[in-house]
Amino acid sequence: MVKPLTLKMKALEARAQDLLSEIKNLKNVVEVLEAENAKLRQQLIMMYDVQNNDGTGYIDTPNKVTGRQNLANLYNQGFHVCNIYFGQIRDSECLFCAAFLHREQG
Fold first, then answer.
1. Coiled-coil annotation: which residues (predicted)?
2. Backbone phi and psi for residue 89, each to the nearest 5 degrees, phi listed first
């Protein structure tokens, strides 16, 4: 005859193993996201030519680019600039992005 305390301990052990498994899965997801983040940071560094950065977070170049031009450049490089899919890679043209980029400045 199994005692109730032993059953509770076995149930607790099973829950702990399930929790550990879930933590391992989340750890794998975090590693993938961190790798993607590092890749995107490198792309931004290459895109903005950080060698001219004076440490303030602003790039000191004679030909400053406007925010709208930066968004257009990102769109042309294959990224969404609309508020729905911002930053995700585009597979085709996006009407939301196009509407945003062609909206009159006001």
1. 9-43
2. -75, 135
Same domain for 69 and 40, yes or no, is no
Instruction: Report angle CA 55, 51, 53 to the nearest 5 degrees.
Output: 25
Provide the 8-state DSSP code for 53. B
Domain that holds residue 47: 1-55
Give a yes or no: residue 60 inside a domain: no
Clarify whether residues 76 and 102 are in a common domain: yes
Structural domain count of the chain:
2
Instruction: Say if 73 falls within a structural domain.
Output: yes
Instruction: Report whether 81 contacts 75 (CB < 8 A).
Output: yes
